[in-house]
Amino acid sequence: MAQIPRRRRLEEGFTLIEIMVVILILGLLATIVVQSLRGATDKAKVTKAEADISEIKTALDRYYLDNGYYPTSDQGLAALVTAPTSGQIPSNYEDGGYIEKLPLDPWGTPYFYQSDGNSYVLKSFGADGKPGGTGKDADIDGSSS
Q: SS3 of 106, please?
């Protein structure tokens, strides 16, 4: 009679516990990476808002040089894209406007603009959209003096 051969080696493979430990370690590493990227994203948004404000300030200064005053609060920043049709009408408005289009701040909110024609306040209220705050919620100011 033929004898049933014994298994000489145990079957190779991973146990369920080993697989679960590896998944747990990968999850912890992913959490650490995501947290570090979140901080970088917030810094990038603040930098983008500062760049947008700088671009808008340049357009406002060009408008002022051409016309002798800034767009009023009623005319708003839209006066940089198309010539205003109300209030004080600019006599030397640049063909094509002063900026191609008005950007929203990185948090999807329009930039705050207020002006009497002689000076202006230009800012982003940050991530929370409210005045004041710290960190990513801080105001990013680009007002004239």
A: coil
- Cα angle: 121, vertex 74, 103; to 5 degrees: 60
Q: Which residues pair with 104 in a beta bridge?
A: 110
Model-level pTM? 0.72
CB of 95 closer than 8 Å to CB of 111: no
pLDDT of res. 6: 55
State the DSSP H helix or E strand holding residue 90, giving kind and residue range, or none if neither: none
Asked if 134 and 118 touch (Cβ cutoff 8 Å), the reply is no
Output the pLDDT for position 1: 55
Distance between CA 134 and CA 116 in Å, rounded?
28
Query: How much is the pLDDT for 34?
Result: 86
Spell out, as residue ranges, where the chain has pLDDT lower than 50.
none
Q: Give the span between the Cα atoms of 80 and 85, in whole angstroms.
A: 12
Q: Angle at Cα 21 formed by Cα 19 and Cα 27, nearest 5°? A: 105
Domains in the chain and their CATH numbers? 18-141 (3.30.700.10)
Residue with tokens 């929203």: 104
Query: Could you give the CA distance from residue 76 to residue 98 in angstroms, rounded to a whole number?
Result: 13
